[in-house]
Design a protein that fits this description.
The structure is a single chain. The protein is mainly alpha-helical. The protein has one domain: Up-down Bundle (Growth Hormone, Chain: A). It has 19 helices and 2 strands. The chain has a two-stranded antiparallel sheet. A hairpin with a 2-residue loop joins strand 1 and strand 2. The longest helix is centred in the last third of the chain and has 33 residues.
Length: 401
């Protein structure tokens, strides 16, 4: 296991980056709605963030694999996210400027998933990947909870704009936390790394069936999950529920993610990645179905517990599966970037915005339920276990990047 300083630095980075991105999109939707934006235009604005991530994420993974400076890249990305979101309240009456700032935030955000996961895999010995990922993801979700709690207090008193201004402060703290990770601990991973000539071509050319299925099914998972919280925020707004309900919704989701991520990290190395990820796939459409069947704000808030369980498990299981598969081909960051490619974050918010605008919330939520159910079936049918077994125990393969 890495030094305590490196573990603390990685957990702190996860904590502050969790605060940066945790509550932004729900409050972005309500902020733009208050400035007279239509549901369709709000969906487009949210999708702009996804477009920035989508376009940049694979290049981000390749860059992280080739330029061995993950701490610096994450620090710069954190600042870019902070600037992008913090500027939104000042330009929300100018759509083009708003889109530009959201694109900056999304482009910077593309480095988070592969970068944070890559640092964890670099720091952990192969048999401890799940154990290290659990606390990492838990710290990230604790940051989400802290951000949601602050939002519940700040939004009613200081207005929606205060949420975005606070993002810049936590982004700066995240950038500083990256420097606490010891270079020597990362150097050990670099020395142990075997040369890897494969990358995007291997994973996209259907050369590895497991990797291909994982990329496709994870895309369906994100298509069903990415619009979930922002759509629930709009649903609450349409029911005249205040900002406190929106904050409580995010808080409920993140509170569920904390134990789900921690327990998932422990179980991932014991019972396998596949059953855990399948549980996440099942929980996500159940959450959308509950929201489709109710108009009670309290039930909508409570339903986000399922979303939290799904997201908490997925965050650990996906990284572990990518680490297993990268042991064969290398280029962990590239595979992680492909597996978390946010096509759902691009299509989901805009698609649900169109459905809400023309057909209402129930149809939009039914569409998310159907998408999540298809993803769950596809994963169950075609995705095998990725961790190797030695007797009755799981033995994760040696991981290289």
């Amino acid at each position: 296991m890495p030094s305590r300083r490196s573990q603390f630095g990685l957990n702190a980075t996860n904590f502050f980056l969790g605060q940066v991105v945790a509550v932004v999109l729900p409050f972005l939707n309500t902020l733009l709605r208050q400035h007279g934006w239509s549901y369709e235009a709000i969906g487009l604005a949210t999708s702009i963030v996804g477009i920035g991530v989508f376009v940049s994420q694979t290049p981000a993974g390749i860059l992280l694999d080739r330029i061995r400076k993950p701490r610096l890249i994450l620090a710069v990305s954190s600042v870019g996210i902070g600037i992008g979101y913090a500027a939104v309240p000042f330009v929300s009456d100018r759509p083009l400027a708003t889109y530009a700032m959201l694109l900056l935030a999304g482009t910077s955000q593309a480095f988070l998933a592969p970068g944070l996961a890559g640092l964890a895999v670099d720091l952990a010995e192969p048999r401890y990947v799940g154990r290290l990922l659990g606390p990492n993801r838990m710290a990230n979700h604790v940051g989400h909870v802290a951000a949601a709690g602050l939002a519940m207090v700040a939004a009613p008193r200081l207005g929606q704009g205060s949420i975005f201004l606070g993002v810049f402060v936590t982004a700066a703290l995240a950038a500083f936390s990256c420097s606490l990770i010891r270079r020597a601990d990362l150097a050990k991973a670099c020395e142990a790394e075997k040369p890897a000539s494969t990358g995007v071509r291997t994973y996209l050319a259907f050369g590895d069936r497991k990797a291909t299925v994982l990329i496709v099914t994870t895309g369906l998972f994100h298509l069903a999950s990415a619009p979930a919280i922002p759509l629930a925020a709009l649903q609450l707004e349409s029911l005249s529920a205040g900002g406190r309900h929106v904050g409580a919704m995010v808080l409920a989701s993140q509170l569920a993610m904390i134990p789900a991520a921690y327990v998932g990290g422990l179980l991932c190395d014991r019972i396998g990645r596949r059953p855990l990820f399948l549980a996440a796939f099942i929980a996500m459409p159940l959450r959308s179905l509950l929201c489709a069947l109710t108009t009670d704000p309290n039930v909508i808030v409570a339903a986000q517990l399922l979303e939290g369980v799904a997201a908490g498990i997925e965050g650990v299981a996906l990284v572990s599966m990518c680490a297993d598969l990268a042991a064969k081909h290398g280029r962990f960051n590239t595979l992680m970037a492909l597996a978390t490619m946010p096509l759902g974050a691009v299509l989901g918010p805009y698609g649900t915005g169109l459905l809400v605008e023309h057909f209402g919330f129930r149809i939009a939520l039914a569409a998310l339920t159907l998408t999540g159910s298809i993803g769950a079936w596809f994963f169950y049918r075609y995705m095998p276990e990725t961790a190797e077994r030695s007797g009755s125990a799981l033995s994760p393969p040696t991981t290289s990047r």
